């Protein structure tokens, strides 16, 4: 009963806040610093509600508003519950972060961030970088070195609440602002004399060419580089709804085409001419895909599927 009362109270308060925010949005108030503050506050409360943390006071005295403007950006980690239609990109953008920051902070999506489920709860670090769990024997210096930042970047980050002599406890969480996790990069493929096509990426063949799958699947860690198998022109680039996910098609001079599917991003534009071996995209798991891999096809024209293994150099 107490719980119901509390949630009714919160909904009421939230409604009040929302109408106040709408009022603040009306044209005559446009661009006022107070309005921006109001929205920031609204967002903060929304996040706090999602995170299950105690709610901040709903009324902010005027003098506090002035002070808040000089405060730094968010310094604490929050959580976010995935909503229908969210992607890891839209969430990253919403919080001013990048996809890698979200991946590194959320082991459940690190390998395959294209698979978000509704109601999934994500950890949202306050800034770009690595959200790290201290291990036995770690020091600030060692962690800084590991992620390519200065020790001061970790020590001075307000959300870390570190004080001299910066002793760390195993299990303690630290934000490493600007830190980067070393990512495995598969070996880079190269053209082989006597072959028109080269491997677009090097990895295990997770599915071969057969009547139900006129392509080969190359297993790759998420975000691995994908290279043009042959020189050509980008004739298709975009979401393909039949299951390819993000698809890129190259047209080659003799009427041959290569297809690169389930990509997570592209490095070229439609109409671009690309060299053989040029970086064209990054592997992903978009569309009908069970895990990060490159679905690679070679076709003659639009409709004649060819077995890529008949055209690619032998694997070493
Ligand atoms: Zn496939």
Provide a compact summary of the structure:
The protein is of the alpha+beta class. The chain contains 8 helices and 14 strands.
Protein architecture, described:
The chain is elongated and about 65 Å long. A hairpin with an 8-residue loop joins strand 5 and strand 6. The longest helix has 24 residues, at 2-25. Strands 5, 6, 7, 8, 9, 10, 11, 12, 13 and 14 form a ten-stranded antiparallel beta sheet that branches. Strands 1-2 form a two-stranded antiparallel sheet. It folds into three domains: 2-69; 78-177, Roll (Membrane-bound Lytic Murein Transglycosylase D, Chain A), CATH 3.10.350; 205-310, Glucose Permease (Domain IIA). It is built from eight helices and 14 strands. It is of the alpha+beta class. Zinc ion is lined by residues 207, 213, 215, 217, 295. Residues 207, 213, 215, 217, 295 line the site of zinc ion.
Category by helix and strand content? alpha+beta
Bound chemical compounds: zinc ion
> Multimeric state of these chains?
single chain
Note poorly predicted spans: 16-72
CATH class identity of the largest domain: Mainly Beta
- CATH topology description of the largest domain: Glucose Permease (Domain IIA)
Compute the average pLDDT.
78
Helix content percent band: 25-40%
Q: What does the radius of gyration come to?
A: 25 Å
Tag the structure with descriptive keywords.
single chain; 316 residues; alpha+beta; Membrane-bound Lytic Murein Transglycosylase D, Chain A; Glucose Permease (Domain IIA); ten-stranded antiparallel sheet; two-stranded antiparallel ribbon; 8 helices; 26% helix; elongated; binds zinc ion
